Amino acid sequence: MPPRSAEQRTDDVRQKLRDAVDCWVVSASGAGDAYLVPLSFYWDGTRLLLATPTNSRTARNLRRAGAVRLALGPTRDVVMIEGSVTFIPRDLLDDARATAHAEHTGFDPRQIAEEYVYIAVLPRMIQAWREANELDGRFVMRDGHWLIGDEEKR
Predict the structure, then answer these.
(1) Which of 64, 113, 120, 144 is the most interior residue, by most CB within 10 Å?
(2) Nearest-CA neighbor of 17 among 80, 110, 98, 85?
(3) CATH number for the domain including 41?
């Protein structure tokens, strides 16, 4: 399969952000022990919104690091995202975003007895590739700016 153009790759990433429900979240302990967990997310056009128990290993690791690495899709159509994290207590997230998250993911942390926190991920870097022939040009976002179509804010 020939490599996608930068425009097509960017469009595909944006579509995946809108349509996908789950991602792999990578974090590490203070001692450097890696931890990987799947979490559901909602993309609001600017940030990914995740939810996890407030005292989970993922929340503790990300709170300490202030940053996260995420992966969407299968290994032959992967999107890798690095971004900064902001923690929003469950009761402080505006109702519209909490409802959008619940509707998109099929999971509403507001309805669970255990204390949850929302984690807003602001992407700083996004890479996407399907095969080795797409490794060159795999960056679709750098320093928080889309390399193609940033002005469109799709």
Answers:
(1) 120
(2) 80
(3) 2.30.110.10
